[in-house]
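Entry 12.
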Amino acid sequence: MEPVHASVLPDVPGEKTKISTSIVDTASSTMQTFGPPKKIHQHLCVFHLYADDMTRQVEAHHYCCHLNEEMRQCLIYDRPEADARLIGVEYIITEDLFLTLPDSEKPLWHSHEYEVKSGVLFMPGVPGTVERQDLDKIAKTYGKAIHFWQVDKGDELPLGLPHVMMALTRDGQLYPNLARDMETRYGVTFEKERMNRSNMEGLAHGIHPKANAAGIGLKTVLREIECKPSGLPSLEPVPRDLV
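Predicted 3D structure (tokens):
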């Protein structure tokens, strides 16, 4: 079954926001600084695939800020509108930083080279000459993305375990209806962008064999273990026979 766009998903359950709540929100917004979200400087649009099932594909709107020249962090929403659901996060690092990671960590990260060169990753509303300057950098990075809300299943709330997400890495992976829908809504043509980016450089050392889940599936699993004592009696877990 081909996935549907987030705009057709059910509304989030719950009572509509009251006027009194909106008044408090407006008042607090004038008194607080919101330092972290104010650092967000760009909107990247692309698709994510579940690391354990790449037939499940999700439109992912990244709102990102730089922590420094080699790392940026992004909030991921299912759409760019004000009522969007926050569905995940992604950390983006340079190739040099990625190569310092332990081998056991590398499979959790995906490459961005194909996304950029294929034209599928783009910055909505940003002129091509400006966009190109940053895409040149993104093509040489890796990302670690975790999703908490399975909007592709129609979940009304963020249910279940977090999911490791991957990126497109070759032709033929993306559902045509998702591509057409995004192209229509944003007035872009992925094939045209592919041609414009044909001379773009990618990762200096090539895509690492352990990246992109090392070519196998990855799935988060919840496992019950003994809780490590805190050292503070008041914070110790309640014995099972008292639960």
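Annotation: Residues 6 and 172 are 22 Å apart (CA to CA). Helices lie at 19-31, 35-38, 95-99, 113-117, 128-138, 176-186, 190-196.
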